[in-house]
Design brief:
single chain, 150 residues, alpha+beta, five-stranded mixed beta barrel, 5 helices
């Protein structure tokens, strides 16, 4: 056998092992996500709140309790998260929002939100449906992600 054939075989074996490893890790992540979703659904409550502000910011800048910062994974501490500040009853609280519904949440309006701890999972308008905001200019990463999904 020639050298280039041996290199090609070795690369093929490495790529196959890498694909199998990623498949196994993906399956474990799906199971973990399903368990977390069940726990979130079990402790969910419907709360009426006035949305004051919403931003994507780092957890350390969001003003969340220190317990949340200690429990957050290191990778999550450095990434920007969808944060919502809302008035619930007489208190102003900071919530972490689900990324899928972050764009739907209106500011300066009262909504009914399904909350699990400090995590907002869904939002409904109190007085009629929630009006969608005008679409914002997409970042390059989001445009590429949409093209790949199509």
């Amino acid at each position: 056998m020639q050298t280039w054939q041996i290199v090609l075989i070795v690369l093929t074996v490495i790529m196959a092992a890498l694909a199998i490893g990623l498949y196994i890790l993906g399956k474990k992540a799906q199971k973990k996500k399903a368990e977390q979703d069940q726990q979130i659904a079990a402790s969910a409550q419907t709360v009426s709140m006035l949305i004051i502000d919403k931003k994507r910011m780092m957890l350390k800048d969001a003003g969340l309790p220190p317990q949340v910062m200690e429990q957050a994974p290191k990778l999550m501490r450095r990434s920007k998260m969808p944060i919502v500040k809302a008035k619930v009853g007489p208190k102003i609280m900071t919530f972490i929002c689900d990324g899928e519904i972050f764009d739907m949440i209106p500011t300066k309006k009262e909504v009914k939100a399904v909350v699990s701890g400090l995590y907002i999972t869904s939002v409904k308008g109190i007085r009629g449906p929630i009006q969608q905001a005008a679409p914002q200019k997409l970042r390059l990463r989001d445009r590429i992600r949409r093209k790949v999904q199509m």
